[in-house]
Amino acid sequence: MKCKGTNKDTYGLGCNTEQANRKLGLGIACRCYSNFLMNNPKGKERVKRSTLSATKPRRDLDKAGKEKKERQNLTTLIKGVINVCHKYIRERDKGKDCVACGTKWHSDFQASHYFKAELYSTLKFNEDNIHAGCVRCNIRLEGNLSEYSVNLPKRIGIKAFKELNELADLDHQIDFKWDREELIKIRNYYKNKSK
Question: Which helix (H) or strand (E) holds 86?
Answer without folding.
Answer: helix 41-92
